[in-house]
Amino acid sequence: MTETFRDPQGGGSLIVAWQAKAKTVLVVGGGTVAAGRVFNALDADANVTVVAPKLCAELQHRVSKAQITWHERAFEDADVDAADMVLTALSDVQESRRIAQLCRHKRIPVNAADINELCDFWFMSTHRDHSVQIAVSTNSRAPRLANRIRRQVAAGLPRGMGLAVEQIGRLRRRIREADPEPASSRRRMAWLAQLCDYWPIEQLAALDSDNIDSLLDAYVRQDDPTAVSLGARAGEHSGGRLVLVGAGVGDPELLTVRAQRALREADLVLADKLIPEPVLRTIACEIYTARKFPGAANEAQDELNRRGLDALARGKTVVRLKQGDPFVYGRGAEEVLFFRQHGHEAEIIPGLSSAVAGPGLCGVPLTHRGVADQVLVLSGADRNGGLPLVPPFLATRTLVVLMAIARLAQVVELLATTGHPPDLPVAIVERAGCADQRTVRGTIATIVDVVERVGHNAPGLIVVGHTVNVLSDAAIQDRYLDSSMLGLHSVE
């Protein structure tokens, strides 16, 4: 019987992962393209030498950090003698050609930027996650399209893939140390292959030192890797799902579709104390509300974290529900880091931040052509409880201050000392997105008295700038606005 073998297609590149550690890579050129080549070489633990009369800012930084060796001059032929690889990134095409031909004569691999026919190899579009590297090549036909392909491939990878590879690498080394005989190679490979093919990536990523010890013992006994039980500790990391969800500004209809789905799928919701009741009424599962009061915030956060870890250990889906957007003064990143340290990677679902959506819901645009072209968002208190650092007044800037109504008088005084004029419009946006939302308007000079007279309904934020009255009839009298640009005006 004649076997049929596939024919080579041709036209491709021989794709390898070159071991560059401790090898010398020579980069000729000092611009941004050269900086990219240098970064790639450093990422592979190469020794990098740069030859160029001048360096861009990134390469200057690398020289200052002693990450590279720099020869401050033009290229000399003798520079290639100590190189294992040469990369040119020059605007002088003829010099690049000459260097490439010199390298080829000396049998040194060379890449000449933007001169494909002179390249022994090309750089690919790469995705890196720990030891996992995925490279996409279009054989220099369409490098921009390679970036798009790489992004789509990376988006489809299981969560924790890179960490899983690191942990399996640790286990593989331990097994080789325990059973180093060459004759055991087939047995080691077969056992690890079963483990890698059967276990979920997320569970492999969550292996810790105790788990690896247990797996090593299982290998020594030659237990079936698909039947190994790691006990309660492994259960902490497998099966449970953690989702960090932004609840938006308070109206359930303004929750994102993904947030609504996460809340439907949740077994436990850990909610901020300020989550509005209408949002909580959409949740069918158990809700634990953080009891954060002055003087007890840390204890309340510890209790919330403990409940989350307990539920994840039981394989539950836990939603951490935070007001607004978790990453806009919501300390969401701190919680991501906490759970990551305990082996759980959070899925992130952003929410509408009151800093941006709140003013808009109450008829206050943050930018407006000819009026404001930038927005600065500040917290009303720094981490030590002090007032924020406010830059000098700029007429085309809108200032949004969160969590500051209780110290409104202090904020206004601070604005006055930084050059903000007394007649600058100010709005207090209250309970944006709720049925009883309200906008209270005034100026730097009057807003404190106005709020004392009409009262305040928490939560709220402060908007300062000439956009405050753009959609208000009062804006027509504002000397900073062209009335032809105001459009329709709501009646206050």
TrEMBL record:
It catalyses: precorrin-2 + NAD(+) = sirohydrochlorin + NADH + 2 H(+). Its EC number is 1.3.1.76. Keywords: Cobalamin biosynthesis, Lyase, Methyltransferase, Multifunctional enzyme, NAD, Oxidoreductase, Porphyrin biosynthesis, S-adenosyl-L-methionine, Transferase. GO terms for biological process: methylation; siroheme biosynthetic process. Pathway: Porphyrin-containing compound metabolism; siroheme biosynthesis; sirohydrochlorin from precorrin-2: step 1/1. Residues 132-154 form the Siroheme synthase central domain. InterPro entries: 4pyrrol_Mease, 4pyrrol_Methylase_sf, 4pyrrole_Mease_sub1, 4pyrrole_Mease_sub2, CobA/CysG_C, Met8_C, NAD(P)-bd_dom_sf, Siro_Cobalamin_biosynth. It comes from the Eukaryota. Residues 158-221 form the Siroheme biosynthesis protein Met8 C-terminal domain. Residues 241-447 form the Tetrapyrrole methylase domain. GO terms for molecular function: NAD binding; precorrin-2 dehydrogenase activity; sirohydrochlorin ferrochelatase activity; uroporphyrin-III C-methyltransferase activity. It is an enzyme of class 1 (oxidoreductase). Pfam families: NAD_binding_7, Sirohm_synth_C, Sirohm_synth_M, TP_methylase. Belongs to the precorrin methyltransferase family. This is precorrin-2 dehydrogenase. It comes from Coemansia spiralis. The gene is MET1.
